Structures are given as structure tokens and as C-alpha cells.
Amino acid sequence: MNELLRALLGLLIVTALVLYGRGWWRMRRLGSPVASIYRLIVFCVASLLVGVAFLSPLHPYSSQLLFFRSLQTVILVLLAAPAYFLSCGYDVMLWGLPAAWRRQLKGNLHRNAPLGRTVRRLTPIGLIWVLFLVLFVVWHEPTWVNWSMGRPWVHTAGLIVLGLLALLFWWHVVGTGPRLHPSLAPWLIAIMLVITEIINMLTGVSTAFSGVAFYDHYVSVHRAIARKISAPWTTRPLPARSCGLVAVSSMCPASSWC
Description:
- By secondary structure, the protein is mainly alpha-helical.
- The protein has one domain.
- The protein has helices at 3-29, 37-55, 58-61, 66-86, 89-94, 99-108, 114-122, 125-139, 142-148, 152-174, 186-208, 216-228, 241-249, 251-256.
- Helix 4 packs parallel to helix 10 (152-174), helix 4 (66-86) packs parallel to helix 13 (241-249) and helix 11 (186-208) packs antiparallel against helix 13.
- The two termini are 33 Å apart.
């Protein structure tokens, strides 16, 4: 990853932590039930997971081992994104801003304000859900994987876009943050989560139990590593079971958030 982008992402994570911590302390002093220890821990975990996904060795290693790419996706999309809204990240960070900024931002993102109406029209649940599922499937498509993993900036950009779509999806599901949309019915949330997890499971199972190596990029990397360490018995392509098992096992923690 480009060092400037790493620095910007790190700065963004630190800024979010500072704003959340400041807002949480203010709300705690006012006796708000939103400022609970549980939510503080969840937000810190969410920030840590984003840092692991983008700033740890997991990111460069994702181009060498399919397991790390799958783990990176699970951490960002199925764990960090819902954790942000479960911690009421927007509401608490809003209180971390100066009072004038807080009033202005809150007013602009009101559902009846021009900006709020625009955001509401651009982010209906149907559109966001479909885009999220389509991009999630494309993310595991062999042609995309083989092309993007040879270009680190493309992989990083795709991961950021996937993460943003995941945030928008979980925004609707969890129901915190800027309250611009009507609350979803519990039965609709359940159906959406079940379908999302079925698609997640299908992408994982098809990879885990296939006897064919889908991703030529990782086959080439594995063979290059094998030649470098002079281990001819490892020149066969590794099965992608680890990737699929990570995707399948991620369903349990993802569904338990809600």
C-alpha cells in the first residue's frame, strides 16, 4: 500500500478514536445511556479491526496467501462494519466535535434538511443491499482476483469500496447513526441477513470443496515461493479450503451482531 494512503488511513483511525473518546466522556458525564462501557469497547475493537485489515502485515500478505485475503475481507466487512454501528459511532463522535460544528452537522444531516434528503434518496436499502451483494460476489470472482491482486492499488481501492458499501448496508440493518431512513422491520432484517449469509456461504463452500485451483495468481505465487525455497513437493497448487472455511465460519459472528 502507498505510504501516503497508509498514513491517511492511520490518521483517520486515530481521529475517529479521539472524537469517539471525547464524545463518550461528555455523554457519560451527562448520564446518557448511550455512553456505556460496552459500546466503548466495541468501537475500540472496530477501530483495531480496521487497522488490522489495512495497516498490519495482513494487507501485503493478502497478495501471497488466499487465506489472508479472505481473513482481511471477513474482518472488514463482517466484523468491523457492524461493530461501528453497534457502538453508535456516529452519535457518539458527534459529541466529540465542538458544539457549533455538532449543531451544524446534525442540522445538515437531518432527514428534512436538503443534504439529509439527498443522502436518503441516494442510499435506499434495496439499492445498497443489491450493490453490496453484487460487489461481494465479484470480489471472489477469479477474473477479478487474478487481475486485482497483481495490482496492489486496485486491491486496496476495491477493499475500501467494499468496506464503504458494507458500512451503508449495516447502517440500515443496525439502525444507529444518522437516522435518515425508516427503521426496518425485524422480519425483513432477518431475511436480508439469511440471504446475505447464504451468498457468503456459497462463495466459501464453492472454494473450500473444489478440487480445482480457481485463482491463477495464488498458484503462481505459491510456485514461485516453492522454487525459491527449493521444495519441489510444494509446487502443486494448494487447495483453497482455508479461504472457504474462513468465509463459512465468519457467518456465525456476523449474524450474532444483530
